[in-house]
Design goal:
five-stranded mixed beta sheet, disulfide bond, 4 helices, 39% helix, alpha/beta, Glutaredoxin, Thioredoxin_domain
Length: 110
Amino acid sequence: MEELANKTAYLKAVMYSGVTVLEGTTTWCPQCKAIQPFVDKMMKKYPDAKFYKYDVDAADDIAQELGARAVPSFNVFKDGDIVDGVSWNKPTELEKAIQESYGDGKVVEE
């Protein structure tokens, strides 16, 4: 998963025709590490979606833009517009947010 280092990279990433998922994380967050296998599964299951992560401490301009107050923090974009957000380690809510925006994209079941 590509890491976004600044607001310029963030703006480029979300201006995508389709679904983009941004994960706000930190190096010290145990819940961020705990949800990572689930995020990896979502990347495989929804291959037409773009997934990015950013460090809320290092890329505080992105965190501020998105209002990230908890980690992990996920934001789902559809065609450049933010459509949903999920904070904390909530896999069911995260997948629901992705599904609702994904539409008729290819789904790969394991």
